Amino acid sequence: MGLNMLSRVLALLLISSTALADDGKFAVLEEAQPAPFDGVLFDKAAVADIMTEKTTWQSQCDIEVEYQLDVAGTEFELERKNFNIRYEALDEEYKLIVEQKDAEIVKLQETIKKQSPPNKWWWFGVGGASGAIVTVIIAKQLTN
Question: What average pLDDT does the segment 4-13 reach?
Answer without folding.
Answer: 57
